[in-house]
Amino acid sequence: MSTTPRMQAVNIGVLLLFCTLCNPALAVLDGLLSNGNFELGPKASELNGTEVLKHNGIPDWEISGFVEYIKSGQTQGDMLLVVPEGAYAVRLGNEASIKQRVSVIKGMYYSLTFSAARTCAQEEKLNVSVAPDSGVLPMQTLYSSNGWDSYAWAYQAEYDYSEIVIHNPGVEEDPACGPLIDSIAIKALYPPKATSKNILKNGGFEEGPYVFPNTTWGVLIPPNIEDDHSPLPAWMVPSLKAVKYIDSEHFSVPQGRRAVELVAGKESVITQIARTTPGKTYHLSFAVGDASNSCEGSMIVEAFAGRDTLKVPYESKGKGGFKRAVLRFVATTTRTQIMFLSTFYTMRSDDFASLCGPVVDDVKLLSVRYPRNKVV
Ligand SMILES: [Ca+2]
Ligand SMILES: [Ca+2]
């Protein structure tokens, strides 16, 4: 059957309408960067031992400085080097960096997730940048006992391409020191909105950084995130230590597919500023539980809404589960800070080395109709 130009125009219109409803960036971009797991390596002639000799020696990457191509099972002194994904990873020596350019949508927010491990006792940092944004991620706290942690970092694309650079700003005496890097992924972030059912945005933490399907240790939302480029949209982590983003595929999660674990006691804090009306009464409801990750013991989550607080005790057997709590308060200002932290520090009972803590999820803030003084 032939189509008239008018019918074609209608069809295109339908197609355009359809495509404004879908997220074009999702299918194209979410997931590993090209050779983001470094399983494709340099030719033997481009290696001197483990050192990569050519700046384009690793397919799809551009390197600078002393970059090593590390095979899983390789030893360093008496330490066995393990790789989180596949058989290969890279190590960044002092002032070394890796770079890849990707196509993005200008103005859109993106989150990067990558796995890193320290190989020496020294404090280490990684500088992640997509010009003009950059961030320094501290690696001094080891959150997972296997040595690997995954980190998230977010930015807003200023151009229709992004040059993603991970750089080791360290100046160690031992050139064999320096972080191992593997599995670099990107995910488009969609700024969440408040709804009639929740004044808070992203209260269930469903919008967040890419989580690797094959890693079992969640993703760290690094500390000192106070701007709007949070990899956990709408939430800030203004504390000294990270919070952990966990997925229902590997952890017990109270609601939906994602939640946060407060892994560093009072040093790991999540917060969001809510618009409130002075004099109105509000209910801040939330779930407190454990991630089913052998994090056992008496826990307390402290919730704050402006000057009001609620301490929620939770007895964890480390096998999953949660309870719900409500903090009722009367707003005194037009902006109320909502905040959560964990009173205690907890270690996993299966290794006594990994930091862990209570899980917070399903955070909802709503104004309630009845005035406070009429309730008996
Ligand atoms: Ca790999
Ligand atoms: Ca959730």
Automatic annotation (TrEMBL):
<dbReference type="Pfam" id="PF04862">
    <property type="entry name" value="DUF642"/>
</dbReference>
<keyword id="KW-0134">Cell wall</keyword>
<keyword id="KW-0325">Glycoprotein</keyword>
<protein>
    <recommendedName>
        <fullName>DUF642 domain-containing protein</fullName>
    </recommendedName>
</protein>
<dbReference type="InterPro" id="IPR006946">
    <property type="entry name" value="DGR2-like_dom"/>
</dbReference>
<dbReference type="InterPro" id="IPR052437">
    <property type="entry name" value="Pectin_Meth_Modulator"/>
</dbReference>
<feature type="domain" description="DUF642">
    <location>
        <begin position="31"/>
        <end position="187"/>
    </location>
</feature>
<feature type="signal peptide">
    <location>
        <begin position="1"/>
        <end position="27"/>
    </location>
</feature>
<feature type="domain" description="DUF642">
    <location>
        <begin position="199"/>
        <end position="365"/>
    </location>
</feature>
<keyword id="KW-0732">Signal</keyword>
<keyword id="KW-0964">Secreted</keyword>
<dbReference type="InterPro" id="IPR008979">
    <property type="entry name" value="Galactose-bd-like_sf"/>
</dbReference>
